[in-house]
UniProtKB/TrEMBL annotation:
The keyword Chaperone does not apply. One of its GO terms (molecular function) is serine-type peptidase activity. One of its GO terms (biological process) is proteolysis. InterPro entries: ClpP/crotonase-like_dom_sf, Tail-specific_protease. Pfam families: Peptidase_S41, Peptidase_S41_N. Residues 60-257 form the Tail specific protease domain. This is Interphotoreceptor retinoid-binding protein. Signal peptide: none annotated.
């Protein structure tokens, strides 16, 4: 990246671009072409203020749960199929605080269903601690499973993520069908959850190849300017595949346009429900 920026600083054609936003776009393309990482971006932000991780809001639990429920759509479809559309994956701290209310308003409604569809097509944000929390609801309590490792470059520390032995409420279990819907916009933590459950052979991914983001991005100021470079500073490495979903994204098991993913998932679940009957009928004929 340093070499690319040095080359750009002596390129009179680039330096003659008067509009800072356009210049940032040109620099972004140059960096992407050089290092082959689509997640790296150069932006011009004269009023940028570094984000500070927000403290846990000191508001009534009912109001806090209502805010979270606004990012989750829950429905029981025909055929006793649970449908959960999630836009943001909350972290363990938040889940522990509002957990009882979420169990009552969301989880207890879908727990008795015979199959579940997790819709991550619009999921673009989430907390790292939410990965083992959500994955654990679809695994057994024992034995514990190593589901992911995240290497953080600034601290040079690798954190192992394991399934959790205890959870709020009951687990959905390992036997009922689970399908995750994805799109080209599915990003970050949601990609990690999908990749973990796919490689644990617990979920079938239906939809489009995901965005290929990262679990953590830092924004670095370029010298004494209003230009910033967004750079991924952590990497997820799956213990089963030894690989990462980052950059390339999560490939679906059944690839269909995102607008057809839900209908396709329902058909798959219905076919799986009929399969034992078909096998039994075939055996009877034999």
């Amino acid at each position: 990246m340093e070499e690319t920026i040095d080359a750009a600083s002596t390129n009179t054609e680039i330096l003659s671009i008067p509009d800072p936003a356009t210049l940032a776009s040109v620099l972004t393309e140059g960096v992407k072409n050089t290092i082959g990482d689509s997640r790296v971006k150069v932006t011009y932000e004269p009023e940028y203020v570094p984000a500070v991780p927000p403290a846990m809001p000191d508001i009534p639990l009912e109001q806090l749960a209502g805010m979270i429920k606004a990012t989750v759509k829950v429905e029981v479809l025909d055929g006793n199929i649970a449908y959960l559309k999630i836009q943001h994956i909350i972290g363990e701290e938040m889940a522990q605080k509002v957990g009882p209310l979420l169990l009552e308003y969301i989880w207890d409604k879908v727990l008795p269903t015979s199959a579940m569809i997790l819709d991550f097509r619009s999921a673009v944000s989430g907390e790292l601690s939410g990965i083992p929390y959500i994955v654990s609801y679809y695994t057994d309590s024992e034995p514990l499973i190593h589901i992911d490792s995240v290497y953080d470059r600034p601290s040079d520390i690798t954190t192992e993520l394991w399934s959790m032995p205890t959870l709020l409420g009951k687990r959905y279990g390992t036997s009922k069908p689970l399908i995750i819907l994805t799109s080209k916009n599915t990003l970050g933590v949601a990609e990690d959850v999908a990749y973990c459950l796919k490689n644990l052979r617990r979920a079938t991914i239906v939809g489009e190849n995901t965005a290929g983001g990262t679990v953590k991005i830092d924004k670095i100021k370029v010298g004494d300017t209003d230009f910033y470079v967004s750079v991924p500073v952590a990497k997820s490495i799956n213990p089963i595949t030894g690989k990462s979903w980052e950059i390339d994204g999560v490939a679906p098991d059944v690839e269909v346009p995102e607008e057809d993913a839900l209908e396709t998932a329902i058909v798959i679940i219905e076919l799986r429900a009929e399969l034992p009957k078909l096998v039994q009928a075939a055996a009877a004929l034999v």
